[in-house]
Amino acid sequence: MTTKSEERMASVTTALCIALSAVPAYAQSADSADAAIFAFDWISFLIAMAIVFVLYGAAALATQSNRHGQSGWNPLVITAGRFGRGSLSRLQVFYFTMIVIGLLTYILVATRKLDGLSADVLMLLGISAVGAAGGQVVATTRKRLSSQNWAWLMQKKWINESIERKSKPVSTRDLVTADDQFDIYKFQMLAFSLIVGVALIGAAFKDGLTLEKFTLSASMLGVLGLSQVVYLGGKAISPPTNEDLNTALNNVRRLEVEFIKAVSDKWEAVPPRAEEVDTKDKKMDKAIATATTEYNEYLTAAENAARLVQERIGALKPTNNTAPSLPHVIPIPE
Predict the structure, then answer these.
(1) d(CA 53, CA 75)
(2) Is the pTM of this model over 0.70?
(3) What is the residue extent of each domain of the chain?
(4) What is the pLDDT of residues 124-174, one digit of tens each?
(5) Quick one: which of 282, 254, 38, 249 has its CA closest to 156?
(6) Are 128 and 93 in contact (CB under 8 A)?
(7) CA dist 196 → 134, 192, 215 (Å)
(8) Phi and psi, residue 272, nearest 5°
């Protein structure tokens, strides 16, 4: 379980990254365009930091503490993914955004001009945003159980609540692990993001308090873009958690409908005698005898799906209830 010290470490790490904008500014002297003089403005810095922390506080207050009691002031909680785990791609967007806001505010107060952003800064923000959005799509499509299948499992009493990933406290380990194993793709993206963030801060002061001149080499932009592609590719090709189960359950529900329809059609043509369906057991036996082929196809698929469910949740034994439902197919006599 994540300790409070880990939460404080994560908060301090983010604060230090943001506070790097305190790097002394250098302005060109009147004597030489190449000479630089120390021109750090504490007032501008304090105002910029105040704006950054106000916005950070707004994000923290808008984030509720998670179910494990971890505070919304934890940057990992603020940027947590859909399933409550630490999200590197979302933290990357937050990291670059706060740096740019801090720098723009400092420049505005110090120079009385609202500085523009270079194409490379926009590219940097865009790459991280695309990575975050892509990661969210992959996580949702590959890890989420569809609502129809969840309802069907609840109806069959194969599950009690959910078979999604177990909730765990958010941790700094989430930034470099996937499925509790070290993820080299995440590590690569984290390392390059930290380096580029520091470079962005340093370049703003070196270039005379401006972000319009900030450039990254084509190779560095390529590395950042490639790390995002590799990261998303790694998520996409990782073993699916519920995608295979969704497919299996969709097939089971389809075969159940086909079985019910076959029984209904045949009983409509030749209705069974009342004594043949006067109990649930007799009704099911008669239905199976009526549509044996459809029932066997359904049962095989249901047993396979039941084993998948059992692998996800471990203790329960859904194979105890694999019988199909027979709604509205000749009601049982009272």
Answers:
(1) 12
(2) no
(3) 4-237, 243-321
(4) 777 666 655 555 555 555 556 777 887 888 888 777 655 555 557 788 888
(5) 249
(6) yes
(7) 21, 6, 11
(8) -75, 160
